[in-house]
Design goal:
The chain is of the alpha+beta class. The chain has helices spanning 3-10, 14-23, 46-79, 124-149, and strands spanning 30-32, 38-40, 82-83, 92-109, 154-165, 168-170, 176-178, 181-196. The chain folds into two domains: 3-72, no CATH class; 80-196, 2-Layer Sandwich (Translation Initiation Factor IF3). Strands 3-5-8-4 form a four-stranded mixed sheet. Strands 1-2 form a two-stranded antiparallel ribbon. Strands 6-7 form a two-stranded antiparallel ribbon. The radius of gyration is 28 Å and the shape is flat. The N and C termini lie far apart (73 Å).
């Protein structure tokens, strides 16, 4: 009996059911058909397989929901971490300094080969400007993650450093092979714990 027919009959996700069957091959005999899909051996207790699969699917769903909840709570905590380029926050006092932290992000931008047939060289400036907001945002997110890992709720003295690389190497004929441009952004700061002033 084809697993897809069992899945249709019992309202199951066919891909998940096939995956589950392959993970339980010592219990349920099956073979993979020539055109794909799983053929379950005759004489199997399908109701038992379906019930066991449903229990497994419910567990997978509960785990996924739990992971989403944990992720949402973590994102909420990260959103509460304050960042400033200055060295204090109005209405707050610093109660602990945890040290220098940083967050990074990098991007490669192809040079393009130039020439008539492939549309010309890459407009590196335009490509970089499109990427800068994304790079800085990712670097700040990493900065917040580093502060969170130290048990801090704020970062002071934040600034950005920028890195540009123009890598090249030698090709097999001894000529110069130009690699993609590399642009990096580092967000730096000091992780601190702040409390509202009385």
């Amino acid at each position: 009996m084809k697993s897809i027919n069992v899945a249709r009959e019992y309202g199951l996700n066919p891909q998940w059911f096939d995956l589950w069957l392959t993970q339980h091959q010592s219990t349920y005999r099956f073979k993979v058909g020539m055109m794909g899909g799983v053929d379950i051996a005759d004489g199997q207790d399908m109701q038992s397989a379906v019930n066991s699969f449903k229990e497994w699917a419910d567990q997978q769903q509960a785990q996924a929901e739990q992971q989403q909840q944990v992720l949402a709570e973590h994102q909420k905590e990260l959103a509460g971490i304050l960042i400033t380029s200055g060295f204090n926050f109005d209405g707050f006092k610093i109660t602990k300094y945890s040290g220098y932290i940083s967050g990074d992000d990098v991007i490669q931008i192809d040079r393009g080969g130039g020439g008539f047939w492939n549309g010309g060289a890459t407009d590196v400036g335009a490509a970089l400007m499109e990427s800068l907001v994304h790079l800085r945002r990712n670097a700040l997110n990493e900065l917040k993650e580093a502060a969170f890992a130290l048990g801090c709720n704020a970062v002071i003295g934040v600034d950005f450093d920028y890195l540009t690389l123009d890598p090249e190497t030698v090709n097999s004929q001894g000529g110069t092979l130009y690699m993609p441009y590399v642009f990096g952004v580092t967000a730096n700061g000091n992780a601190v714990v702040i409390e509202k002033s009385n």
